[in-house]
Amino acid sequence: MANFLAQFQTIKSSSDHIVISVEDVSGLWPTVKKGFEERLPFKRACLNNKTRNSVFVENLPAEFILTTDARLRSRFPHEQYLFWFREPYATIILVTCEDLDEFKTILKPRLKLIVQNDEREWFIVFVSRAHPSNDQATKMAKKVYSKLEVDFSSRKRERCCKLDIHSPEANFWEDLDFKIVESIRNTLDRRVQFYEDELRKLSEQRFMPVWNFCNFFILKESLAFIFEMAQLHEDALREYDELELCYSETVNVPGKQRDFGGLERGDEQAALLNSGNKPLNEIVQDDSFREFEFRQYLFACQSKLLFKLNRPYEVASRGYSFIISFSKSLTSYESILPFCMREVWVVTASLALIGATSSHYKEGLVALDVEKEFHRLEGDLYSLCRLKFMRLAYMVGYGTYLERSPVNSASLSMLPWPKPAVWPSIPPDASSEVLAKEKMILQASPRPKHFGIQRKQLPLEPSILLREANRRRASLSAGNMLEIFDGRPIDGVVSPSNKPHTAAMVRTNSIPGNFESSIDRPMRLAEIYVAAEHALRNTISNPDLLKSLSSLEEFEQKYLELTKGAADNYHRSWWKRHGVVLDGEIAAVSFGHGNFDLAAKSYEKVCALYAGEGWHDLLAEVLPNLAECQKILNDEAGYLSSCVRLLSLDKGLFLNKERQAFQSEVVRLAHSEMKQPVPLDVSSLITFSGNMGPPVKLCDGDPGTLSVNIWSGFPDDITLDSLHLTLTATFNTDEGVKALKSSTPIVLNPGKNTITLALPPQKPGSYVLGVLTGQIGKLKFRSHSFSKGGPAESDDFMSYEKPVRPILKVFNPRPLVDLTAAISSALLINEPQWIGIIVRPIDYSLKGAVLHIDTGPGLKIEESHAIEMESHTDVMDKTTMENRSLGKKNNCHSLKIEDGQVEFPDWASETNSVMWIPVRAVSDQLPRGSSSVDSHKRNIVDGMRTIALKLEFGMSHNQIFDRTMAVHFTDPFHVSTRVADKRNDGTLLLQVTLHSQVNAMLTVNDAWIDLQGGFVHTGKGDGRPTSGFFPLAIASTTRAGILFSIRIGKVSGDEANRLDADTILNIKYRISGHRTRGAHPPVKVDSTKSDDTEQDLTFRSALVFQRPVLDPCLAVGFLPLPSSGLRVGQLVTMKWRIERLKNFKDEVLYEVNANNVNWMIAGRKRGHISLSPEQGSRVVISILCIPLVAGYVQPPQLGLPDIKEANISCNPAGPHLVCVLPAALSSSFCVPA
After folding, report:
1. Where in this chain does the record put each TRAPPC10/Trs130 N-terminal domain (predicted)?
2. Which H or E run contains 919?
3. Cα three-residue angle 154-160-161, rounded to 5 degrees
4. Which of 494, 726, 1095, 1214 gives 770 a disulfide partner, CB atoms 3.0 to 4.6 angstroms apart?
5. d(Cα 1231, Cα 1233) in Å, to the nearest integer?
6. Are strands 90-95 and 18-24 parallel, antiparallel or unpaired?
7. Is residue 564 scored above 90 in pLDDT?
8. Directed axis angle between helix 312-332 and helix 291-308, to 10°?
9. pLDDT recorded at residue 455
């Protein structure tokens, strides 16, 4: 099967779509060809993927080919199963017939012969050429088509369709598309199953000697290509992934020696995106493929599918991982590969991947996080390519021109040198090149740092190239070590005269045959550069890469291009810091070319990053370069700021004389004529704080003095010509704070300085240190930083993590405003109500004041209604009250609320006013009535709601008044019930008492009861009272009663589930009240309704009725307590008697429940008792208890959990409260008189 690799690759490159064969029986194809081909490609074709799940393909390309075409006739039988993917996926049979006898004798037998092959998916298209005006021909065509359907269609599948040339039916083309796609789907499923079966057979033989990966590869890629032709790219990609995994396992089988590849000319150019770089039959090795070419081929196939899926991000992600892993493989075979093959391949692979992914990527089509991650991967590819390119440049002698920055040093110093089996030697005619390289080495000198900064240069190599190259030469002499190091002195190698040797300028080439001795002398550095350059020319076939290494100018241009590409992509990703760091490398190149403006802009971004991250060591490397650019550009302000920042860095980063040079530059510029003097921020250089101890305390209007500690970070003394220190109030930002000034110059010594400043009168409040400003010569400076110079445990150590300590307090403040509640009565719950807030300014204007309103849980503002505000008087006469009762409002204004804020009108700035806020207290709890047995009543806390108020006022809203108010909401009624009368026929007269709970008049218009199971109404049965005395008026704090007539009914099967339900009392009522007194009619939220229309409100309350005990089985009684009474700490026996009233259970479960705070049980709390089956039998249960507290407490209670309450008669079951006396006094605690 492996012999067909060349043919397989040719067929694969020429077949990229599905083939549909056309069997033209009646010569109709030229007539219908145009209509058929206009349907291509098929839209929204439904196919099955590998897991047999339906997938809709938007555009399915296909081609119609006649069965007589040479492309279908020229295939040999043995190829059909091997290259089954190119066989037709459906067969369309075109027929026509105008005579029924002709159909039976000629057409039908021929069709039977055509469709006898069960492996093909076919269907018949009957083409009718009968004109619509010819009725006889039309009827005959219909008869023939009907006979055709009977003979070739079945219930399971319809295999015929009819095309009328003169007037085709509207749904014919849709029916044709459906049948074609159905045939393609069936054929695809069958072929996929065939390939899966064959692959399964081969997989079972993987560990046998007959295993051949080439056979497995052809079948696996054929299956993948089937999916690719069907536009099922996800399944095709999955097949290639599995193929890659299988190949990795095959390659890594121990014991087999395989050729890696990569030795041919042009192999250094990565082909990871070009699957047709080499024919497959040329990279076959035994039963597999060479790893170098085949792994790139697999990745090229995967990337092609990913690009078709519009996923360039995944191509970049997979590509970066592939380059890293493949580079490791190249490292393993580096000794047999051409010189620097790994570095060259990585450069070309990264550039190819960057170009392909960038061209396929479209902005705005993916999510933001995917877009940023894509640019991060592009930046990584650029960085990897840049790193390998710098290593190649270092090999040819351009390393001395590379910026020895931290990023370059960190990257290159960890990158190993190439490790060829034999280091390349220089060619015989390279003397002039060696001389040029030596001249370049002698002329190369590091650029001196500004301010005379002397630093050890960072390394760019993992080890010395000279020693590494000579160590890998074919014949290496021990030679002179100083000659190996090119005449440079090294530790431990000196001449006897204590003078280092200098290597002679020998021009002889160090290749075999040029020396008489059998041992070559060590190569010099220039010779190593020339040898590497010639070796790279033999390795590299890419003209662009060769051009980039041909000269220093071309190298810098390519280096700048790669660095900018990495920086730009990092800036557009999450890793913006990487982009800023690379901006520093661009700045170094720009500086070397004299483009100081661009260099300064890039250095500023790098310095901002290093300063923000706290990387001061790195900042010390870059900041002098920025200062040098600014000085060259005559940017005095920037240069001055850079000098101050250099002084602010840690003292150990620079020598003392270097820091003195920084200060001298600052002083020189401060006393010079600056063109544009700007304030300088010295917060990191001059810091300050207050003295230890309590703050200075003054009264309003008193002057004083204030001592301040100032720390100077300058290396020498510096004179401040003027000094100003501002104070900041801790509770407001009043502009009336006066600054502290020094009238005489102040000399600051390095370290801590204490100065005393005159303190002018300040307004009442607490003050902290604000901003320190002053002047050095003509330079104005400012500092807003607290000192961090003292020890951490002392008060001198001030940082932003600790609260700011006040240094001055001025007393005698007074209140300026007051907010109180307008009413104290309860409001209606679950109804819109007005809450009144009385605003009283205390000799202070509230002009422009803003009130922030924040409601607590269970309370919300009705924002659909405006807030109202009116003037307030403490005493209201009767006329005013009457007017308000009629709905008239005195000087009322509407205010809007926005985001919980209300702005005060101007008229309310000086006078007392009332703000009415429409709110609604929400409660989902249904109120429950009480009775003589159950005296339950809603807790007043349940109706409490809170509203938080925050008033901002003053000229700049610097005054703030906070207050939280509690508002009480309640139901209009509390309901209590009792049985007023009980008749012999079971009728009960139920009295319902309504207690008014609001300060308003309530009018009941209607009431009815929804009874629970077991009770029925008497009379009309509508649940309404026995007498119609509505409307019923109930004044504030009064009560009224309503009588209902009910009786006990039989419990049916349907009502058994409603025995535990509650009885609901429904009341329709109205309320007459005013918002100034308490509860009132609800706020009309709907403005469309008339103010005169008043809607009835509905109140619902739950009542609990208990059916009387009609058939008790047990009687439980509590036996009397001892006459001596109960005392704390003394044992007492609690006894209950249980008596059998009728035949019931013989064994009864009991349980004693007691409050653990009041009682300690000494006996058994839970158990079983046995009763004699005779009626009247009794059992006494005794429990030892110890009272723990004195007073009236509830005694322990006896319960029978397994018996319903209706079967128990209590006579009684126990007292409600018992009296417990205090413990008797002990004589041991008595003190004699």
Report:
1. 15-316
2. strand 913-921
3. 140
4. 726
5. 7
6. parallel
7. yes
8. 170
9. 66
